[in-house]
Design brief:
It contains 1 helix and 3 strands. It is α+β, with helices and mostly antiparallel strands. It has one domain.
């Protein structure tokens, strides 16, 4: 299994701006999120898929780093 950081390029208030997901590959990571939180056709999904996203494999990195700092204040 791999660990992926999915970081959305755009998000508004009360929307998800990122996820950390354990999956076999990038495609499965996206499927897991869509299964749990909806896709672009579901307004209640609280995810801006149309704004795009970055997906980064963060498995077994040896460098010390912050994995996720999520700040989206009003």
């Amino acid at each position: 299994m791999r660990i992926y950081l999915i970081d959305f390029n755009e998000c508004g208030y009360d929307e998800y701006d990122g996820f950390v997901v354990r999956a076999e590959n990038e495609d499965e990571a996206i499927r897991i999120i869509k299964k749990k939180h909806g896709d672009e056709n579901k307004k209640w999904g609280l995810i801006d898929w149309k704004g795009g996203y970055k997906i980064i494999d963060i498995t077994d990195k040896t460098e010390r780093a912050i994995i996720l700092g999520s700040f989206n204040a009003g």
